[in-house]
């Protein structure tokens, strides 16, 4: 349950320096970079660790609702930072936050702050009456569109075909998203990394399951909106 989770009143109230201390500038009392990539429901953090070396100057945040899982990822990142303190890839650009991504995302991120959002193997909520608990819905897509900049990308991957169809249907119906084709998926490094770097994705591979990917570009907001 998430009833005791705390949310910042606005993105300005976020203490990002706690999560990314090496990106905090004492002199100007401000962050030198802001979160641009979000892994929603990051689980054990495999995607974060693989994205870290690819975007050394960008801040990447995992959001996870489960307490113990968040703690595990936090410890994992601290261990990586300690181990690679003097290395070029030092994992200072990844962090994790406990939170319910279905609530108050605009309290964490400013309008157009994000360039990529990942939804990797989200909980399927199989039963019909549970579908409204799915992480991709019309209402939530409007929130994701708000925090994503024009040209930003929503990445989805799942091993549940019914959920894949659901996500595609809702993204197709949303006026601010446009599907990226298979050619694009093939040449995009994040789509490739996403395919096998999350713990859930690796489990699906071990069990010889199928994986469905759908990536959508955030379109410009029409003038009269
Ligand atoms: N993305 C990871 C992977 O591929 O290995 C984890 C996949 S796991 C099946 C789904 C994760 O989403 C779980 O860790 C769950 O706790 C988290 N989750 C579910 N609902 C969430 C929410 N509303 N906000 C944040 N995380 C959530």
Sequence-ordered SSE layout with sheet pairings:
Blueprint: H1 16-19, E1 24-25, E2 30-31, E3 35-40, H2 46-51, E4 59-64, H3 67-83, E5 94-98, H4 105-108, E6 114-120, H5 138-147, E7 148-158, H6 161-173, E8 177-179, H7 182-187, H8 189-197, H9 199-206, E9 212-218
Parallel strand pairs: 3-4, 3-6, 4-5, 6-7
Antiparallel strand pairs: 1-2, 7-9, 8-9
Helix pairs in contact: 8-9
The protein binds S-adenosylmethionine.
Description:
It is built from nine helices and nine strands. It has 225 residues and is an alpha/beta fold. The protein has a single domain (32-218), classed as Rossmann fold (3-Layer(aba) Sandwich). The chain has a seven-stranded mixed β-sheet with strand order 5-4-3-6-7-9-8, with helices on both faces. Strands 1-2 form a two-stranded antiparallel ribbon. The radius of gyration is 17 Å and the shape is globular. The N and C termini lie far apart (35 Å). Bound molecules: S-adenosylmethionine. Residues 41-43, 63-66, 69, 100-102, 120-123, 198-201 line the site of S-adenosylmethionine.
Helical/strand content category: alpha/beta
Strand order, main sheet: write it out: 5-4-3-6-7-9-8
Task: Bin the strand percentage.
Answer: 15-25%
- At the first level of CATH, what is the class? Alpha Beta
- In DSSP terms (H or I, runs of 4 or more residues), the helix count works out at 9
Tell me, rounded to a whole number, the average pLDDT: 95
Name given to the CATH homologous superfamily: Vaccinia Virus protein VP39
Ranges where pLDDT stays below 50 over 5 or more residues in a row are none
């Amino acid at each position: 349950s998430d009833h005791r989770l705390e949310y910042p009143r606005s993105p300005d109230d976020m203490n990002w320096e706690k999560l990314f201390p090496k990106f905090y500038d004492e002199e100007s009392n401000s962050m030198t970079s802001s979160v641009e990539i979000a892994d929603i429901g990051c689980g054990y953090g495999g995607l974060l660790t693989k994205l870290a070396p690819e975007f050394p100057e960008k801040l990447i945040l995992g959001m996870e609702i489960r307490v113990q899982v968040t703690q595990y990822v936090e410890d994992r990142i601290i261990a990586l930072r300690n181990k690679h303190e003097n290395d070029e890839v030092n994992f200072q650009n990844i962090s994790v936050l406990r939170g319910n991504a279905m609530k108050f995302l605009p309290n964490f991120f400013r309008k157009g702050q994000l360039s990529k959002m990942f939804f990797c193997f989200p909980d399927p909520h199989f039963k019909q009456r549970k579908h409204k608990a799915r992480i991709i819905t019309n209402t939530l897509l409007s929130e994701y569109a708000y925090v994503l900049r024009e040209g930003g990308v929503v990445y989805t991957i799942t091993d549940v075909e019914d959920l894949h169809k659901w996500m595609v249907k809702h993204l197709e119906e949303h006026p601010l998203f446009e599907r990226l084709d298979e050619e694009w998926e093939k040449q995009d490094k994040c789509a490739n990394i996403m395919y096998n770097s999350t713990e859930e994705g690796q489990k699906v591979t071990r069990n010889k399951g199928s994986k469905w990917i759908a990536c959508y570009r955030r379109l410009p907001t029409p003038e009269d909106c």
